[in-house]
Write a structure and sequence with these properties.
The protein is mainly α. It has 2 domains: 4-38, no CATH class; 41-89. It is built from 3 helices and no strands. Keywords: Membrane, Transmembrane, Transmembrane helix.
Length: 90
């Protein structure tokens, strides 16, 4: 059987027989799910942390490919900035 500590914040524990406690647990889980979905800064932070881990792993496995990817991104960003500057200057 799972303990309440091992359940995610958005899960309702099984075995609650008191209707008031059950409603409280459901409300708590629903509010946690809404917060997880609506908290954009936290979602961006989690996604960037995951991307950082993936990028470091890729760089350790394939350093030449990582350098090529960085150069490619730099060229793409430079091209976009150059294109915007050219459009604005006209």
């Amino acid at each position: 059987m799972t303990t309440p500590e091992s359940l995610p914040r958005t899960a309702v524990p099984h075995g609650i027989v008191d209707p008031v406690e059950s409603a409280r647990a459901e409300l708590k889980a629903a509010l946690a799910a809404i917060e997880d979905k609506a908290n954009v800064p936290r979602r961006v932070q989690k996604a960037s942390a995951a991307a950082t881990v993936k990028a470091r792993s890729f760089a350790q496995r394939n350093p030449v490919g990582a350098v090529a990817a960085v150069v490619g991104v730099a060229i793409a960003v430079g091209g976009i900035v150059w294109g915007i500057a050219r459009l604005v200057s006209r």
